[in-house]
Design brief:
- One of its GO terms (biological process) is glutaminyl-tRNA aminoacylation.
- The chain is of the alpha/beta class.
- Helix content is about 15%, strand content about 30%.
- The strands form four sheets. A seven-stranded mixed sheet has the order 3-15-16-17-13-14-4. It has a six-stranded mixed sheet with strand order 8-5-11-10-9-12, with no helix packed on it.
- The termini are far apart.
Length: about 325
């Protein structure tokens, strides 16, 4: 009897842990109901539950969002007793901050870890530029550029090609730029990043529909030029072709289940333009051997992740998040 009493005392003296859970937090422009997710996935023909347009954990991973960034996002939300709604831009901000400060160690650069992201140049909608005076200037056919220009402690560099033919973003050229436009026009030169050259239009060539097909230009060394460019743009030379997928919010309204704003139900509020595929994008050949889920920062564009649909012949990238908008980008 005495032994049974002592056992009962020991049991009553145990310390039990109690977990306190916060109230449900809703991410705007999305949902978490399995039934509604199934309806939406069928409505927009999502390939699977890891479709980057969804907010499942497999989908976030495929989009290139690191687990550490998801944990940081959850920690930032904190505890609350009220049901709250979170804007997707908050998740984007946390992911962007994480990727912007995370780099692989120097001795691991050849084997990029899952936490890393590497800087490179890619042109999503290419416009061909022929440099007319390339040979006369005796320019090098390649150059070394840092993997992480914003981090002076990281000394890693990679070699990129340069040549008589380069490609720039189509949006970086306008024949007659409006007031405030700072990039390339017929009468306004622009700087080329990393190589110290000023690019100036000589003439343009158009296709049968009147669309600019290519540019014939001249370059001048920045140190010798009397022209100070208003902007510097990225470019690629001798690139490899790749496919880039850009994703937009799932719904037109922040809360698709708001009966006042969306009286016909959440399916009527579906955004039909959630995915834009750019099949003719060009990227620097230095990333040709990238592996699935490797992450990259495309200069002036955003953060991207190698998709599982990639093959040895063709890389496919998902846009993870945009860069912060540059007020001087015009």
């Amino acid at each position: 009897m005495w032994e049974e009493l002592k056992q009962a005392i020991r049991l009553s003296d145990r310390r039990f842990s109690y977990t306190s859970w916060t109230r449900y937090k809703e991410l705007r422009n999305s949902f978490y109901s399995l039934k509604k997710s199934s309806c939406y996935a069928g409505y927009i023909s999502c390939a699977d539950w890891d479709d980057p347009r969804l907010f499942t954990l497999p989908a976030l991973r495929r989009r290139g969002i690191p687990a550490e960034a998801v944990n940081a996002f959850v920690a930032k939300l904190g505890l609350t007793v009220a049901q709250t709604a979170i804007q997707p831009s908050m998740l984007d901000s946390v992911v962007r901050d994480y990727l912007n400060t995370t780099a692989p160690e120097q001795d691991l650069l050849s084997k990029v870890s899952s936490r890393a992201r590497i800087m490179t140049m890619a042109v999503l909608e290419p416009l061909k530029v022929h440099i007319d005076n390339y040979l006369s200037l005796g320019l090098s056919d390649s150059l070394e550029t840092p993997h992480f220009p914003a981090n002076p402690e990281c000394k890693n560099t990679y070699r990129i090609a340069f040549g008589q033919t380069i490609y720039i973003e189509r949006e970086d050229f306008r024949p007659d730029g409006e007031k405030g436009y700072r990039r390339l026009t017929n009468n306004q030169p622009v700087g080329l990043k990393h190589i110290g050259l000023v690019l100036q239009v000589k003439n343009i060539q158009k296709d049968s529909d009147g669309v600019v097909d290519s540019i014939v230009a001249t370059v001048e060394k920045l140190v010798d030029s009397n022209i100070k460019p208003k902007a510097f743009i990225h470019w690629v030379a001798e690139p490899v072709n790749c496919e880039v997928r850009l994703y937009e919010p799932l719904f037109k309204h922040k809360n698709p289940e708001d009966a006042t704003a969306v009286p016909d139900g959440f399916l009527s509020d579906c955004n039909s333009n959630t995915l834009k595929v750019l099949p003719h994008a060009l990227i620097d050949a230095s990333v040709a051997d990238a592996k699935i889920y490797d992450r990259f920062q495309f200069e002036r564009t955003g953060y991207f992740c190698v998709d599982k649909d990639s093959s040895k012949q063709r890389l496919v990238f998902n846009r993870t998040v945009l860069l912060k908008e540059d007020s001087g980008k015009n």
